[in-house]
Amino acid sequence: MEIEFVKMHGTGNDFVVVDCVKKKYDLGDLGSLSKKLCDRHFGIGGDGLILVEKSEKADFRMRMFNPDGSEAEMCGNGIRCLAKYVKDSKLADKGKLTLETLAGLKEIEVLEDWVKVDMGEPELLGERELSLEKHGNFKMTIVSMGNPHAVLFVGSLDAFPVGDLGPRIEKHNLFPKRTNVEFVQVVDRTHLRVVVWERGAGLTLACGTGACASLVASVTNDKTDRSVEVHLPGGTLKVEWDEKDNHVYMAGPAAEVFKGKIEV
């Protein structure tokens, strides 16, 4: 079977987007399909597979599968890409959308090449201390943005063994469902540098929910103000934790890379 796809990215976090509204596909095992399509050597390559589907609760529904085949509850960069695709492909002729995810309904505004997302209320799940052989003890702030995050503050990202610690923390028995891991360097009260080890994907150039979790942890630990620029390897996101409604708002770019067809 041949399927059409659009390759998109948000701050370097790249996705294979498949429109299941315009065309009906019998895609079979979606986890296996994601593994195949996201493979950077034998597939299209991407940090995830995103399906655009009809919804009875919202304008559209997003399903997102990681490169390891697991399904994610939410994806901040991915949902911006989906919203940009919906507008550009004229699936919906309006700038504001409501999208259904496994983490609930999300309200989104498409502003030219930037997309703003109401990420909802964060859930603070306390502090954890983790001891890792050869690396010592680490204090982590645990945050849910509809998906799990463990946030660690580090003095310098350039000197920190992110690639070694990321997978060990993701799969630690403290997190039976695994977790995303944020390594955060505070630049000043309005700027963060963040590198994310994503659950099911590994190191990525950006993570939208991770940027949001990093801000929430930073404010909670009195390290930043409530509105910051989060600098990730793939670009910058603007994130605000509104004191009035307790919602986190994230804004950033979304862009099409190319279109294509592939046999599956």
Give an overview of the whole structure:
The chain has 264 residues and is of the alpha+beta class. The protein has 2 domains: 2-118 and 253-263, Diaminopimelate Epimerase, Chain A, domain 1, CATH 3.10.310; 123-246, Roll (Diaminopimelate Epimerase, Chain A, domain 1). 17% of the residues lie in helices and 46% in strands. It has an 18-stranded mixed β-sheet that branches. A hairpin with a 3-residue loop joins strand 13 (191-198) and strand 14. 42% of the residues are buried. The mean pLDDT is 96.
Top-tier CATH class of the largest domain: Alpha Beta
Named at the architecture level, the CATH assignment of the largest domain is Roll
Gyration radius, in Å: 18 Å
Considering DSSP H and I runs of 4 or more, what fraction of the residues is helical? 10-25%
Characterize this entry briefly.
The protein has about 260 residues and is an alpha+beta fold.
